Every structure is written in C-alpha cells, then in structure tokens.
C-alpha cells in the first residue's frame, strides 16, 4: 500500500497542527476566563456591599431624623405644656408636617402614666411602668421598638425619648407607620431578583420581602445569618426554597435589626454566565476551526508529498529506463560487431558463387533451365537477406554508438527547414500540413549534422505514418517548434495529430527492436537509434502521447555556446 | 601502367581465401596475411601498393599494424576494414595515416573501387617523388649513384 508510509507522518503533522495552536488558545481562554470571573465576582460583591452600606445609612438617618424630630419637641416644650391636649394636638400637626410617618404622639410621666395622647385611640390614663419599652427608655434615654401590629392591627413601631426637666423625668413617645419605612427599605432593586429587607434579632421580618416573606413572620433562614457582627458580611448560601443567593448583611440599631440584601446567584452573576457561554462558544468554534484547518493543511501536505514521491518514482523509472537503454545499446553493439564478420564472409561467398555461375553460363556449361532460374533466385535471396542483416547491424551500431561524432555547430533556424523540406513531398502527397515555428532566440547546437538530420527525419516520418493511419489523406497536421529552454538548452518539439501511442507501448518506444509495424516493414530500431544519437549529444528525448489525439516528441539539446 | 598489388589482412581465413579468389578473377594481384605481424613480414619481401586491413584482430590489432606499416613503409596505402560501424574507429585510422575505410559487410565492387582510388593516390605520390628526384639528379647526377647504393623501398 502506498498510503502506509504517510500514516504515521500524517498523525504527527496533524497532532502538531492541532496542539500547537490549541494549547495557547486554551491557555488564553482559561486565563482570561479566570481573571474575568474573579474580577466580575469581586465587582458584584463590592457593589452588593455598597448597596448594603448606602441602605444602612439611609435607614439610620431616617431613624435619626425621626428621633431628632421628637427631641426637638422635647426641648422646645415643657411637660406641662404638652400635657394639655390642645397644645399636644398642635405639636402633632407640626410634627406631621415634618414627616407623615408619625401616626400619634403621647406624653408619659416618671411613673409610666400616660398623661396626654393625641391619636386615633383613647390611650391616656394607662400606666406603663412595667412595660419593657418604658423601662428601656427610662434606662437609656431613648427607645426604638421592633415592628408590631398593636391594637390597630397596622404594622408600626414606636420611638420613645426620655428627658430630665426641672428635677422630673418624662417621656415622649410616637408611633411610626411602618408602611413608609417598609417602602423605603423595599425600594432597593438590583437586577431581577435583588431585594432588601430588615429582620429583628430573632429573625422576624421588620419589612416585607419582595420574593415572599410577610411582615412579622419568621425568616426560616435566620440561622444562616449568624450572630451579630461588625460591618458588612457577604456570603453565598441556599435559602429555605433551595435557591442559591448572594447575601450581604449588616446589623443596625446596635444589633437589634439585621439589614439583608440578597440577589439570586444566577442573576447576580448573569454576566459571568453569559461570558461562560461565550467562552464555550468560542472554544468550540475556535477549536473546530483549528481542527478543520489542521486536517485541511495536513491533507494538502500529505497529498503534495505523495505527488512529489510519485514524481520521484517516475524520475527514477526514467533513469532506470535510460540506464537500461544504455546497457542494451552496448550489448547490441558488441553483438552487431560480431555478426558483421560472418556476414562479410557470407557476402564474399555469395559474390563468388554468383561470379562462378556467370562464368559457367558464359562458357555454356550451364543450360537455361527451371532449376537454374530457381538457383539464381535463391542466390538473390541470400544477397537480399545479407543486406537486410547488414542494415540491422548498422542501425544497432548507431544506437550503441560511443563517443562524439564529427561535431560542429548547427544553426537550427536553417537546419530544421532543410530537414522539413526532405519530407515535405511525402507529407504533401498525403495532404499533411507541416507547420514550423522556430524562435529566433534559438541557439546553435553542437553535434553531427547527419545524425541530427537522421533523428528529425525519423521522427517526421513516424509522425507522417501516424497521421496517415488516423486521417488518411486529409486533415493531418504536423507541427515543429523550436525555442530556447531553461539551463541553456534548446528544445525541439515535433507534434502530430496522428493515431497516438497506447500508454503501454509508450514505455517501450525507445527500446531496440520494439515495433508495431508488420515483420519486415520496420526493424524497431528507428527511435532507439534516435535516442542513442540525442543521448550522445548530451541531450534528452521524451515522448508524450494520447491515443487518437496525437503524439509529441520533445528533444532537449545543450546550446553550443 | 603498373598493375595494382593488394594485400588483404584479416584473421578470418575463409574471408581471405574467398576474397582472394574473387579479386584474382577480377584480374587483381592479391596476397593475404592472417595477422599484423605476418603482413609486416610480407611487406618486407613483396612490393605492395594497397593494404586492406581489418581493425579487429587478435594479437596486433588493425590500428597498431597500421602505425607500424606507416612507420616502416610510408608509401603503402592502407584501407581500414571495420566491423564496428563507429565513425570514431575510422577516424582513429584516418588520423594514423589510413587512406580510407570500409565497413563490414562490404561488397567486392566497393572494395575494388576504394582500392583503385588508393592505388591512384599512390601512383600520383610516386610520380611526384620521381619528379622531385629527377630534378635533383639533373642538378647533381652523382646522386643517382648514391641512391643506387640504398635499396629502394
């Protein structure tokens, strides 16, 4: 099999062509992906932190403002003034101008007695000295409660501030409508699923969660947020529904409220996912292209190598052929030489016989008879056959000729038309047009004029025979071209549109004694002699042919100068 | 006119015999030799105009014999007979002083024709030599005596 020597090579080339670009390709993609994802993750987390921070500030400032509003009332009014319902009502109206979040306003004395109240309920007169919020405000000076529904079943929380005034301690308390507060926290939107909400220390929702989590319910994910911590914490966790979220948390109000901002991981890292898809797409496409190109190029390289190998094989074959022809030439020359001696004797003997016969006839010792005529005919045959043998040996010796013949420079521009003229008559009879195209660039060649003439005449005669065989006596054409060739050579081409030579015979045309003509019509030496002559002139001869299209003989000879 | 004397030199004895017969029948005086050495020996004793010499012979081959003949007997015309139709062996012969060459197998008529040509050349040469000598003799007749002491050819 011809394919085998290349199978291993093909694998190596293919592997090289795929791996060499693929490795940097994968590395670049991999490194790019790694840095891109890392920075994207960091960015996403950083922006989460920023949102949490902003939000905390916003919530804290809301609470501070409300607290400041109450402190302002406390500082600008006396306990006695505010205990009057009219005054309290006016103060409340002013307060509502500051913020609609205030729902009611109440004044308590030291003992927890609700001294005055302005709001939708009649609460004054009740004593709160045992209520946890009252204890806390008396202890700390202020208190902000968690969200609760209270008597009204409306979510709200209270802010209470205590003040020392003229030797007595009193408290002002206001309920804050948590709806406004709720909206404030809830309005955070990040991507599709980003949300913010407040929890108290036990995990009860202080504001609604957009993705489900009504007020006052317990967030089942509370344990995941861990104990009270400083600053902002970010982490990725699955919630109770199994969705994975990116969380950012921070504690407010000295660890009593937890602000949670979270976004579904898939949503938060959407760009990351898109980048991954893109990278996969590029990998597949790029990899595919690399592999396809590698296959394509490898195929081309291998085909090219195969063709070169074939050409080399052909060249080898031609060289072997030429070598074989040279061997045959030498052998047959020796053979012809040895045959010539006996031929000489036969010829002499024949001459003697003929002479004696003539003498006998002249003397009248032989009468004319049928037998005599037969004898004479036989003797003539001997002469004929000896001459035929002599012709063959001469031709063989020419084919196997050694050394340089009587050489001189030959001007092809003059020489070729002369030779063509020799066969023009024969060609004309058969209606064959002989065209000549001899370049004026063609250089002289060095060689024996008679031999080169013999070669050209031989080739032209062959061409004429081939044309007659195909076309009869019209439609034939022979073309002689001559011009310079590379490496200071001259080329002579003889082209005919005759019957052509089968590819099988084409290999043998230069072999001595190969002929397609009937016995006695050709010796099969013509072309081998031509080959021998051109070879000795330092040139080469080649043939190309296609059956029923024509034949081209190409002679290449070195230039004389 | 002096009759032409030919010597045939070839290692093929049958060829010599038959050709001798043929030439004799044509009225030509022929001697034969089967080797170069024999040919040289014969030339010492016999007066020969033209030698027809085979190129390829065992022992002393045609070209060697030719050189020896030309050295010893420069006036003898030699025609090379070659079985090898290579022009170069003929050229070698011509360069060494052969008059002409014949290719085997050659016809008797061709052989005779070439021999006659060579013979005519020989006669012409002899004539010139004679003329030159006679001029010399006319200047100094004593030369004849001197010349007579040396055996000619």
Helix-strand blueprint:
The complex is a heterodimer of chains A (561) and B (153).
Chain A: H1 4-76, H2 79-83, H3 85-98, E1 105-108, E2 114-118, H4 132-140, E3 142-144, E4 156-165, E5 168-177, H5 178-186, E6 195-200, H6 222-225, E7 232-238, E8 244-252, E9 257-264, H7 265-268, H8 270-363, H9 370-399, E10 408-410, H10 412-429, E11 432-438, E12 445-447, H11 449-471, E13 476-485, E14 489-496, H12 503-506, H13 526-536, E15 540-546, E16 550-558
Parallel strand pairs in A: 11-13
Antiparallel strand pairs in A: 1-2, 1-5, 3-4, 4-5, 6-9, 7-8, 8-9, 10-12, 13-14, 14-16, 15-16
Chain B: E1 5-9, H1 13-25, E2 29-33, H2 36-45, E3 50-54, H3 62-72, E4 77-82, H4 87-95, E5 100-103, H5 108-139, H6 142-149
Parallel strand pairs in B: 1-2, 1-3, 3-4, 4-5
Helix pairs in contact in B: 2-3
Provide a concise account of the structure shown.
Chain A is an alpha+beta fold and 561 residues long.
Q: Could you explain how this protein is built, in words?
A:
The complex is a heterodimer of chains A (561) and B (153). Chain A has 561 residues and is of the alpha+beta class. Chain A is built from 13 helices and 16 strands. Chain A folds into three domains: 268 residues, Beta-Lactamase, CATH 3.30.450; 97 residues, Orthogonal Bundle (Helix Hairpins); 151 residues, Heat Shock Protein 90 (2-Layer Sandwich). In chain A, strands 2-1-5-4-3 form a five-stranded antiparallel beta sheet, with helices on both faces. A five-stranded mixed beta sheet of chain A has the order 11-13-14-16-15. In chain A, helix 8 packs antiparallel against helix 9 and helix 9 runs parallel beside helix 13. The mean pLDDT of chain A is 84. Chain B has 153 residues and is an alpha/beta fold. Chain B has a single domain, classed as Response regulator (Rossmann fold, 3-Layer(aba) Sandwich), CATH 3.40.50.2300. Chain B contains six helices and five strands. A five-stranded parallel beta sheet of chain B has the order 2-1-3-4-5, sandwiched between helices. In chain B, helix 1 links the parallel strand 1 and strand 2. The interface between A and B is medium-sized, with 29 and 22 residues.
């Amino acid at each position: 099999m011809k394919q085998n020597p290349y199978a291993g090579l093909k694998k190596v080339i293919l592997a090289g062509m795929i791996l060499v670009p693929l490795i940097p390709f994968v590395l670049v993609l991999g490194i790019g992906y790694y840095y891109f994802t890392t920075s994207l993750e960091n960015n996403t987390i950083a922006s989460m932190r920023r949102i949490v921070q902003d939000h905390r500030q916003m919530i804290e400032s809301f609470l501070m403002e409300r607290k400041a509003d109450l402190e302002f009332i406390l500082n600008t009014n006396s306990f006695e003034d505010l205990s009057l319902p009219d005054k309290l009502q006016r103060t409340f109206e002013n307060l509502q101008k500051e913020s609609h979040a205030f729902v009611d306003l109440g004044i308590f004395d030291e003992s927890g007695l609700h001294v005055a109240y302005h709001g939708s309920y009649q609460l004054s007169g009740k004593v709160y000295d045992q209520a946890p919020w009252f204890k806390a405000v008396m202890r700390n000076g202020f208190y902000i409660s968690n969200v609760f529904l209270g008597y009204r079943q409306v979510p709200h929380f209270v802010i209470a501030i205590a003040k020392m005034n003229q030797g007595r301690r009193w408290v002002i308390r206001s309920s804050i409508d948590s709806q406004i507060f709720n909206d404030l926290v809830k309005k955070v939107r990040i991507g599709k699923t980003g949300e913010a909400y407040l929890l108290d220390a036990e995990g009860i929702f202080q504001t609604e969660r957009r993705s489900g989590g009504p007020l006052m319910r317990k967030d089942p994910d509370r344990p995941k947020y861990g104990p009270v911590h400083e600053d902002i914490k970010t982490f990725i966790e699955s919630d109770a529904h199994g969705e994975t979220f990116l969380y950012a948390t921070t504690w407010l109000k000295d660890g009593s409220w937890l602000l949670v901002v979270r976004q579904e991981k898939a949503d938060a890292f959407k760009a990351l996912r898109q980048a991954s898809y893109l990278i996969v797409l590029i990998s597949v496409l790029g990899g595919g292209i690399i592999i396809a190109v590698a296959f394509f190029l490898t195929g081309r390289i291998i085909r090219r190598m195969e063709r070169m190998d074939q050409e080399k094989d052909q060249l080898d074959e031609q060289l072997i052929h030429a070598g074989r022809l040279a061997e045959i030439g030498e052998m047959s020359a020796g053979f012809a030489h040895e045959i010539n001696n006996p031929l000489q004797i036969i010829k002499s003997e024949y001459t003697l016989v003929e002479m004696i016969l003539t003498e006998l006839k002249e003397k009248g010792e032989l009468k004319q008879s049928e037998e005599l005529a037969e004898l004479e005919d036989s003797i003539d045959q001997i002469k004929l056959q000896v001459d035929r043998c002599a012709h063959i040996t001469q031709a063989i010796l020419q084919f196997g000729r050694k050394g340089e013949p009587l050489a001189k420079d030959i001007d092809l521009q003059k020489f070729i038309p002369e030779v063509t003229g020799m066969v023009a008559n024969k060609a004309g009879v058969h209606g064959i047009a002989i065209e000549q195209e001899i370049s004026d660039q063609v250089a002289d060649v060095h060689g024996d004029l008679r031999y080169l003439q013999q070669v050209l005449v031989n080739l032209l005669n062959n061409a004429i025979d081939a044309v007659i065989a195909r076309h009869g006596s019209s439609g034939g054409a022979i073309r002689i071209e001559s011009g310079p060739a590379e490496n200071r050579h001259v080329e002579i081409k003889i082209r005919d549109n005759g019957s052509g030579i089968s590819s099988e015979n084409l290999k043998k045309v230069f072999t001595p004694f190969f002929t397609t003509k009937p016995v006695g019509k050709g010796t099969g030496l013509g072309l081998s002699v031509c080959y021998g002559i051109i070879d000795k002139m330092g040139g080469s001869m080649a043939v190309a042919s296609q059956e029923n299209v024509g034949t081209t003989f190409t002679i290449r000879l070195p230039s004389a100068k | 006119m002096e009759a032409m004397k030919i010597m045939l030199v070839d290692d093929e004895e049958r060829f010599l015999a038959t050709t001798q017969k043929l030439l004799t029948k044509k009225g030509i005086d022929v001697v034969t030799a089967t080797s170069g050495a024999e040919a040289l020996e014969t030339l010492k004793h016999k007066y020969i105009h033209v030698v027809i010499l085979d190129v390829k012979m065992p022992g002393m081959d045609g070209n060697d014999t030719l050189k020896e003949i030309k050295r010893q007997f420069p006036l003898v015309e030699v025609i090379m007979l070659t079985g090898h139709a290579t022009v170069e062996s003929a050229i070698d012969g011509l360069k060494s002083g052969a008059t002409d060459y014949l290719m085997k197998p050659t016809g008797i008529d061709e052989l005779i024709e070439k021999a006659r040509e060579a013979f005519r050349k020989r006669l012409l040469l002899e004539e010139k030599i004679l003329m030159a000598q006679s001029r010399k003799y006319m200047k100094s007749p004593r030369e004849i005596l001197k010349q007579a002491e040396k055996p000619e050819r």
